[in-house]
Amino acid sequence: MLRRGDHSVLRRGDHSVLRRGGHVVLLGHVASPHRPLRALQHLLERFPAVVGTRRPADRQTRQVVPLLRAAGFTVLYRRRTRGGIIERVTAAN
To answer: FRET partner for 7 with CA separation of 20 to 30 A, picked from 15, 51, 66, 93?
Structure first.
């Protein structure tokens, strides 16, 4: 999910692969709740050459939890680390 640009395709795919009551665990970069870090993340997205080779769909400021909830998942666990830029989410369908 973290490298894909079209999240709707992934959401449909997750539901079709998971068993009823199954869990999906996601880990990746998300928008920091701290303004200075979030500003740096936006700069990294605008100027990917600064950090070397990155794929166009690699986003630092995505919001994963709203996408999961919109897809019908129930968020069971959510934890942020490293200034809030890394998030681990466990969700059930």
So the answer is: 51
Provide CB contacts within 8 A for 13, sequence distance 6+: none
Q: What is the mean pLDDT of residues 64-69?
A: 86
* CA geometry: angle 49, 5, 12, nearest 5 deg: 160
Q: Which two tokens stand for residue 25?
A: 């665990």
* Closest-CA residue to 3 (of 56, 63, 43, 78): 56
pLDDT given at position 93: 78
Q: Quick one: DSSP state of residue 2?
A: -
Q: Give the separation between CA 6 and CA 83, rounded to whole angstroms.
A: 27
pLDDT at residue 1 is higher than 50 = no
Domain ranges of the chain: 7-92
Q: How many CB atoms lie within 10 A of CB 53?
A: 7
